[in-house]
Structures
1.
Amino acid sequence: MRVSKLFGKTLRESPAEAELISHKLMLRAGLIHQVGSGIYAYLPLAWRSLRKIEQIIREEMDAAGGQELRLSILQPRELWDTTGRTEAFGPDLFKLLDRRDRTLVAPTHEEELTTIVKNNVSSYRDLPVILYQIHTKFRDEPRPRGGLIRVREFDMKDAYSFDVDQDGLDKSYDAMVQAYKNIYARCGLDVIMVEADSGAIGGKDSHEFMLLAGSGEDTIVVCTNCDYAANSEKAVSKKHRQAPEPEAAMEEVHTPAIKTIEALAKFMDVRTNKTLKTLLYVADDELVSTVIRGHFNVNEIKLKRALKAKDLRLATPEEVKAAGLVQGFASPIGLKGGLKVVADDSVETFSNFVAGANKADHHLKNVNYPRDFQANIVADITLVEKGQTCIKCDSKLTTKRGIEVGHVFKLGTVYSEIIGAHFLDNDGKQQPAIMGCYGIGLGRLLAAAIEQNHDDKGILFPTSIAPYEVILSALKSEDSEVTKPADALYTTLQKEGVHVLYDDRPESAGVKLNDADLLGIPVRVVVSPRNLKNGVVEIKERSSEQANEVASGEVVAEVKRLLGR
RNA sequence: CGGGGUGUGGCCCAGUCGGUAGGGCGCCACGUUCGGGACGUGGAGGUCGGCAGUUCAAGUCUGCCCACCCCGACCA
C-alpha cells in the first residue's frame, strides 16, 4: 500500500477525549474513529491488525481441535428467558424494537449454541466437541472507557466445549488454555494467567489472562516468590493463627471518641489484627452484618457469593442507625434478632478480640467467637491486599494492575441442563453435556498490545500483528532518482510476500520518519539520495535506536532476516 | 445511577465588559526548500452541541435538554 493512497491520516496532537496511551496513539495514527460512546469504526490500518490477530486465533483454535462456525447476533428473547439471563444481564442487554419487541442483540452465545448442540448431539460418540466463532458482541456497558478497552460493540472469539464427563472438560479446558498461551505468545504479548472469579452464573474453575499495565482495570494479586496469581476478586491469602490463649472474661472499656481501627488498637495497646470490625451491607434489600478482623477489608465479590446475592452495597448511616447499631462502635454482639451475620473465617483464628460495644464511646475486650457471638455464615470474605501472605508458599503477596485479554470458564452443566443438551452415555443413560466457555476480545487485545508496546514517539507493533511489516520511506520521493529504485524495491518486497507500506508522499523527511515511528511498523527501510549515492539503503527496526546501511542488493535478504523468515 | 469536567472548521485551542468569530496544525494553489513534524504568498473551510428565553444586539447572560470524557457504582 502506498501511503499516498492510504485512507486515514495521522495527527500531530491527540484528540482531547483520549486519556489512555493506546487510545491516543490509535487516534493519532489513524487506526480508529469514534462513532459514539463505546462505539468505534476500525480504519484500514487497525482492520489489518485485527485480521492478523483473528488469523492467529483461528489457527490456534483449529490446532486445538476447535471447529469454526457462525452463530446469529439476533436472538429471540424467549431463548434468554429460559436460562434467566434476560434478567441476569439486565440493562446490559441491547433489546430490539422489532415488530414484536421479542428480539435482542446477543452479548454472548451460550444459549444459542447449547440449543444447537442439543439438536446435533445425541450420543457420547458425538462428543467431545469444541466450537468457536469470531464475531461481534453487543453489551450495553454502563461505562465504556479507554478507547477500545471497554466498548459496547466488539469483536470476540468465543469458544464452547462440550464433554461427556469432568475429565473430558478438564482436557478441553487445558487445550484451550494452551491455545490461549500460544495466541498471546504469537501476538508478541506478555500475558499472565490468573485465577478468576467465575461470576454469578459460572461454574467452578475460571482463569483470566492478564496483560500487566498500569492502566488496567483489574487488580491482580501475585506472589513475590512462587507462581500464585489471582484476580483480587478471587484471591485468597493465608490467615495466621494465634498461639492458643485462654479465653478471658469479656469487659467493657470506655474509649472516648475513638472511631478508627488504628486509633482503637493504639488505645488498647494491641495490634490491629486483634480487633474486629463490623460492617453493615444491604444484600438484595436485606440488611446483613459482616464481622472481620480489623486489619482486613471486605471483598464484596466474595461476600456477594457467600450470600448468593445479586446486589450488594454498603448500608447508609441511616440504615445502620435504624438497625440499632451505633456507627463507629458497631458490634457483632447483641445484634437485633434476625439480622443475618456473615463472619470472615479469620474470626476463628484469634481469641480475645477487641470489638465495638454498640454503645457510643465504648468497646469490648476479650471478645471470642463463637462464645460471644454467632454467625449464620462463616466464609472467607477477605480482600487480599499487598503485604499479605501467600497460601502456597508463605511469601509476601503484592498487587499489580492488568487488562483482561481473555477469560476461560468451566461452566459445568448449568446451560446443558436447562436447555436439555443431553446425550446417551455408554450405559444408555441420559446425561447433560459438560461445558466450558472461552473468550478473547480482539479489539481489546489490540489496544492492550499498544499499551504494552509503545514509546514516546508512537506504537511499536509486534511484527505478527502489525498492519504492515515494513515501511519503505522514500525521502525526496518526487525525485526520479529516488522514485525509480524505491518503486522497484516496493515491487520486489511485495513479490517476496512482505507486507509493505510505501511512503511515497512528497513530504519532508521529518514528516515521514515521524509518521513511521507513530505507526509503529516494525522495520523501516529508507531510500534517499544520500543513501543511493553510497549504493546502500538504510534499515532500522522500530524497537532499536540503531540504523544499518545495507548494500542495495542485499535489502530483501536483510528484511527477511529481520522478519524471521 | 452518583460525583467531576468539556462542547467554537478535520485536530489542538483563544475569544476580555454582550457589539455579529480568531490563531496554530492539517487541507488547496504557486514558488523556494529537502535526513527528524521547512518557509513565503494567496485561498477554501464555522447554523460557536441543541432548543427556548433576556436584549436594539448572544459564542458570551438565564433556563431546559443533548453529546462526549474522567472517577466511582457496575462489568454472565
2.
Amino acid sequence: MMQHLDTFRLIEAIARAGSIRKAAEDSNITASALNRRLARFEREFGSQIFERLPRGVRLNPAGELVLQHYRAQRSDLARVKSQVADLSGVRRGHVTIACSQALLPFFLPQQIAAYRNAHPGVTFAVNVRDREQAEAELVSFRSDLALVFEPRVLVDFEVLHAIPQPVCALFTRDHPLADRAELRLRDCLDHPHIAPAHKYGVRGLLDMAAKRVGRTVAPVVETESFELIRYYVMHERAVGFQIPIGLSAEQDTGMVFRPISDRDMPPGNLLLGQMRGRVLSVATSRFADQVALALANMSVA
Amino acid sequence: MMQHLDTFRLIEAIARAGSIRKAAEDSNITASALNRRLARFEREFGSQIFERLPRGVRLNPAGELVLQHYRAQRSDLARVKSQVADLSGVRRGHVTIACSQALLPFFLPQQIAAYRNAHPGVTFAVNVRDREQAEAELVSFRSDLALVFEPRVLVDFEVLHAIPQPVCALFTRDHPLADRAELRLRDCLDHPHIAPAHKYGVRGLLDMAAKRVGRTVAPVVETESFELIRYYVMHERAVGFQIPIGLSAEQDTGMVFRPISDRDMPPGNLLLGQMRGRVLSVATSRFADQVALALANMSVA
DNA sequence: CAATCCGGTGCATTCAATGCACCACTTGGA
DNA sequence: TCCAAGTGGTGCATTGAATGCACCGGATTG
C-alpha cells in the first residue's frame, strides 16, 4: 500500500530532479537505495522508464505513460477514500482548484468558507494558474477542478458550468468616464490604461476588440497581477480592466466599474471544469455543484 | 509494485473465500500472515473493508469500493504495459473477451487466428457468458470486450459496433420446411423444436414473437448449449434456432438454415462493446477494430 | 457441553531493503 | 591535457519489516 505509492513518489522526484542523486538528496535517502528502487521497478515493470544520459536521467515515452498512470491511480484512490469517508458519515475530503486570479478576492473565499461551514472536515488547496496552465493542471491530476476565464484549448477540459462575463473598465469615482451612460472601448483606450499581460483572457478580448476598431491596447502599465490593477487605478487616474466576478460593488469604495459596451466587445466565458471523463471525489463534486449553483444565481442577478 | 497488487490479490481471495483462513490456504500462506496483511492494509487505508462475522468475514460497502478501485487500477496498468510494448515495437498484449455461444464455432476462431497471424505476441482469453453476465464481466474488469446477442441492460455497456441478426431456424436438408420460400414462425412451432433456455436472446425473441401470434414455444428439448441444438437436429427431425453468425453455410453439410420471416420476428442485435468510459489497451482496441470491420463486412454481404 | 471453526496476537526467524564505500565513465574548465 | 566534479551502478554488512508457529478468546453447532 504505502510502499507502492512511495516508490512512485520517488520516481516523480527523479523525473523532477533529472538525476537520481539529486532526487535521493531531496527525498532523504541514499542514491544507492533510490537507484535500486528504480532498477527494481523497471525490472518488474518490464521496461526502462528513464533514458540514462551522461549528466543524469530523463523520462522516456514509456515513463511518461507510467507517470500518468500512477497519477491517475493516486487521484482515484483519493476519490475512493473520500467516498468511504462519506458513507461512514464523516464528511472528509480534500478539494484542489486551479483558478484565474479574478476568483481570488471575493468569489472563491466566499464559496470555500460557505462549504467549509457546512463540512468542516473538508480541506482545500487553491492553485492560481493562467488559462493555459489550467488544463495541464487537470490532466496531470494536480488539480481536481478548474475555474478559469476564456480557456484556450478544451480537448481534455470537461465544462461543468459556464457563465458569460463582460470585460469591465474600472476607475475612481471622479474619473471623466464615470458619468457615461454607455462605456465605449475607444473611450477607455483614449485615457491612460493599465492592462493585464497577453496570456490572460481579459487582455485577449481587449486586443481582439481593439484590432477590430483599428486601435491598439497601449497600457502605461502592463502586469500579471490583477491585484496591482485594482490598486493602481486609485493612484494614477487610469483605466483598469477586469471581469465583474473579480470586483465588488461594496468594497473598493473609491472605485467604480462599468461593462464595456457589447457593441465593442462580446462578453467572455468563465468556465468551471474538470478533466474529461474523470470521476471526482464526493467532496469535490459537491463543491462543484455548489459553485455551479452560485454562478447560475450570479448570472440571473 | 509487485507487493502492492499482491496484497490486493490476497484481499480478493479473502472476499471470494469469505474467510481469512480459507483464503490463506488457497493462497499458500498462513492465516496469521494474511490476517496481518489485511490489518495493515485497513490501518493504512484508514477504515475497515471487511465486516467481522462469527463465521468469517464479508466485504462492507467500503470494501466494494476498494475492490473496484484496484480492479480498475490493475486493468489500467495492463493497458500501460500494452502501450509501452507497442511503442517499443514489440506487439505484445492480452485480450479478454466475454461472448455469446454463437461466436464460438466460426466467428471468433477466425477472428482470433487472423489477428494472431498478424501479431503473434498477443494472447487471448475467451469467456463464454450469457447476456446478463457479460456486462458484469466488463464492469469488474474480468473481460475487456463483450460480443453478445441482445444484451439486456446497457448502463455500463458502451457499444462499439452493432449488426442485426435475424433468428434462423435450422433443420436437415430433408425436413418438410426446407422447401418453403418464406419461413413463418407458426410453421416452426408446428414441428417438434429444440430451443435454448430463457436467459438467451434467441429464446427471448422467440417467446415474444410467439406470444404476439397467440402461440407458445414448447420445445421437446430445452438446453443451455447451442452446440447441442446444432447436433440434435441431425438426430431427430426437429427444428433448432440460432443466429446466422453461429451457423455456417459450408459446414454442417446435412443441415440448412433459413431466417424466420421478419413479418413474425424483428432481427435482434449482436453488439460489440466495452465498459463505458474505459481506455482499452492497444492490442484490445485494435482487435476490436478488426472485429467491428469484420461485422460490418458481414452485414453487407 | 464438547468439538470445531473463526479472527487475533506474542515471539523467534528470515530475507529483502537500506546505507556505506567504491568503481567506471563523462564532462567541463583550469 | 589533465583533474575535479558529477553521474549511474555494484559488492557487502546490517537492520527491520513480513512471515510462520503456537496459542488465546469467543461463537456456532451438533
